[in-house]
Every structure is written in structure tokens, then in C-alpha cells.
Amino acid sequence: MSEIKEVSIVLDTYPHTRAVKDGSLANPELKLNFTEYKPIRKAFDDMLKDQRFDICEMALGTFLQALDAGKPIKLLPVVMGGEFHHGSLWYNPSLGKMSPSDLKGKKVGVRSYTQTTGVWVRGVLSEQFGVPSKDVTWVTTEAQHMADYECPSNVEFLEGADLADMVRSGELAAVIMGTKQGAPEGLERLVPDVDGAITQWFEAHHAVPINHMVVFKDSADMDAVHGVYDLIAKGLEQAYPVEERGERFPLQCGVKNVWNAVEMAMKYSYEQGLISRIFTINEIFDESFL
After folding, report:
1. Residue 246: helix, strand or coil by DSSP?
2. Fewer CB near the last or first residue (10 Å), C or N of the chain?
3. What is the pTM of this model?
4. Average pLDDT, stretch 51-79?
5. What are phi and psi of 117, to 5 degrees?
């Protein structure tokens, strides 16, 4: 009988991870020791600081910055959460009608400049609406996870500010807020035809924007890493049967299924000054997954 391998791991609870976390989906050769974080983003700092866990959920933008900083982690090709963010940009219509192109030279709020949702929204603004990130002043309320990262000069920090209130008062032209938080009171989506813009972007890139994936430290046991990957993949199959998935199903696994979205996140991150270069697929994923 082979020795049972212990794995320190952090995953948020989703329909596709619940069975892995409660043990109803298990590998007899692995003992998964879960640590809980609420919200999950608090785990990123501990993973980046000293690679505290063998395996840890992480925002894709945070991973790319960590890779750029030389942190000894790699990406597991499995998506924890993702969605289109064309509807994540909000403005105050009572102050006058606006379109995305009107944001040039204006101030826009976002929780953190390095937040992955912000990366996607800024990429869309630049690519589809002709508003490069450098042409907007980004007002943030939280520091980035990579402590030694210096934000561009067009980023302002206002700790504790209520960004939605600042849009209501006209101090900000718009705010980036994830769609899962619901519509902020008194605000409307800035992109006029969200569905049409999403269709245009999807047809160009054949990808769904990724927010969270999973990373593992370079020193982790690779047999254990593959064992955990297989469990999560089974969890996905159980929670979301293949025959029920649409063309734009976001929770993909396998390098070939996630690469288009990872590549776009990397392109946008580079354009926005979050990373210093574009990485190869071999730098991002362990060769055993390629």
C-alpha cells in the first residue's frame, strides 16, 4: 500500500468543489488539509508571501503578477470562476448620458488596480471602445496583493472610500463592480448593449474571461497535484454535466480549454502595466499538463 500524501490546500466552496471539500469525492492516496478564508482573496497574500500551501485558489491577474515577480508557483489548468465583465462598469445617468468612449480623461473607481475584474474591463474598454487604460485615472480603495508592485502614475489610492457613492455624487465618472454584487443603487451599466458587446468579444477570442484559477507551489508533489486536479475535474463533471454546458461555459479545465482566456488576460495585464512581459505556455503550466 502506498503512503498517503498530505496536501495543504485552499479552495472556496462552489458547486464543483463542495464534494471535494466534504470528502464525498476523494482519492484514497491523498489527505486534503483545507484552510478556510473568507473572502477567499485573503488567501492570496499568504500564498504569495511564503508559499504557505501546496495548492491554493488565486485570481488569474494575481498569479500573472506573481509569476512576473519570480514567485515559485505554477498554474493548475482549472477555472474556479469566470464571466464576461462588459456589464461590470456602472455610471450615474442622472448626471447625464455617457458612453464608454466618454471615459477618456475621467476618473473611474475600482477596488484595486490589480483586481482581475478590472483587468478585463480595462481590456474591453481599450479593445472595443478605444479607451486605453492610460487615458483614465483609476481611483482605488485597496492595495494590491503583490506588495512590491508599483501602480502606474494614473492610479490614485483612497482607502475606505465608497466608490459607488462617489459615482452618485459625480466625483467619479464610473465604477467597476462585479455583476454578482447586483446593480448599485441609482447606477446603470455604461456599456449600452452588453449582450452585443459580449458576442463581439467572444467571436473574436473564443474564450470566457477568467477570474479565479488554482496555483501550486513548485515544490509540491506532482502526483498529489495531479490527484487534486483530477478530483476538481470530477467535481466539475458532477456539478455541470457536459451535455448541459453551453458554448460559453466558463468553468473549463485542461490547458487547451483555458489557454485562450489566459493568453488574453496576459495580453491585457501587459498592456496595463501589471506585468513586464508576455510569458510562454511552458512558463505558466507544468510540462506534465501540456
Report:
1. coil
2. N
3. 0.96
4. 97
5. -55, -45
